[in-house]
Amino acid sequence: MKIDGIPYRSIWLKDDGWSVGIIDQTRLPHEFRIERLTTLGDAAHAIKAMLVRGAPLIGATAAYGICLGLRADTGDAALENMSETLIATRPTAVNLRWAIRAMRELLLPLSEAERVSAAYEKAAQICDEDVAINSAIGDHGLEVFRQIWEAKGKTGKLNILTHCNAGWLATVDWGTALSPIYKAHDAGIPVHVWVDETRPRNQGAHLTCWELGKHGVDHTLIVDNVGGHLMQHGLVDLCITGTDRTTAAGDVCNKVGTYLKALAAKDNNVPFYVALPGPTIDWEFEDGVKDIPIEIRDGHEVDYIQGLDRTGAVSEVRILPEESGSANYAFDVTPARLVTGLITERGVAEASKEGLARLYGQSVYKAS
């Protein structure tokens, strides 16, 4: 994708051929800052502190984290320690485990002398495959959007509601839920996006609005609880979100607040789609509510809000009394029964075990 005319991916190998460039997403939208990762610790910090976020991008960063770690020690024990360090950074997104598994399966049979170059080749492959997968998701999603647009009589705008950020900043490029939006916009369908602010980290306000603006897509920021009202008044034609983990039965785990949007969509007969790449499917879990571990993050994210102050500086302010506590559940699970369809790189599937099996057959993406 392009930022002020310059093409970027969300992660890349820098010109020195070994260190890794990322966009510090905690600085957006007020500052565009590129960070250089040079060690395993840098990669782990980038994931845990959410300089990078989004399931596919977390996986790609973990792959490059292994590369950086191997530059210091190529031994088996070191590789195991690297894997454990990276897995501990974020518990919910399955792509993290998937990427580390892919790296370990490649590297462990190799001699230590072969591992560094092989790791970099594999990490680059994971990134390139992610771009191709997300572009394909956009192509399949475009057809869904086109059908809804035609059913609407091609009048007015196609109003889409999304939650959190599932754009190119959450992947290596294109994005998952935003990929069909970009493809529809580029195809001439007049899309308008209702962007949930997505408290407490405000990824919708900070990241999705920034991305859509850079691409020239019409959008409006709304507070998280407005979506149901808009649906009641016929102002939403479809909802689309991403997912950090999808069960084999079609339950989807996404940023907290997604479940409530799905309930409102169901009550108002608004189609609710989820866009996902194959590596986000956890074939070992079927009951998302029971099985998926939900990350509980530091309450500081709830207690404070970040923005641009009157002096033009980025600052934080506390929004609750000193004596009050907070809880910060980062994700929730939307049961498959509330999902109209799953838009994948292989096509659109019914949100069910049978629907996913028709597209994927024997799983090629097991994560553990």
UniProtKB/TrEMBL annotation:
The keyword Amino-acid biosynthesis applies. GO terms for biological process: L-methionine salvage from methylthioadenosine. The active site is at D244. Keywords: Amino-acid biosynthesis, Isomerase, Methionine biosynthesis. Pathway: Amino-acid biosynthesis; L-methionine biosynthesis via salvage pathway; L-methionine from S-methyl-5-thio-alpha-D-ribose 1-phosphate: step 1/6. It catalyses: 5-(methylsulfanyl)-alpha-D-ribose 1-phosphate = 5-(methylsulfanyl)-D-ribulose 1-phosphate. Substrate binds at R53, G54, A55, R90, Q203, N254, K255. It comes from the Bacteria. The record marks C164 as: Transition state stabilizer. Its EC number is 5.3.1.23. The keyword NAD does not apply. One of its GO terms (molecular function) is S-methyl-5-thioribose-1-phosphate isomerase activity. Catalyzes the interconversion of methylthioribose-1-phosphate (MTR-1-P) into methylthioribulose-1-phosphate (MTRu-1-P). Belongs to the EIF-2B alpha/beta/delta subunits family. MtnA subfamily. NCBIfam families: eIF-2B_rel, PRK05720.1, salvage_mtnA. This is Methylthioribose-1-phosphate isomerase. It comes from Sneathiella chungangensis. The lineage of its organism: Bacteria, Pseudomonadati, Pseudomonadota, Alphaproteobacteria, Sneathiellales. The gene is mtnA.
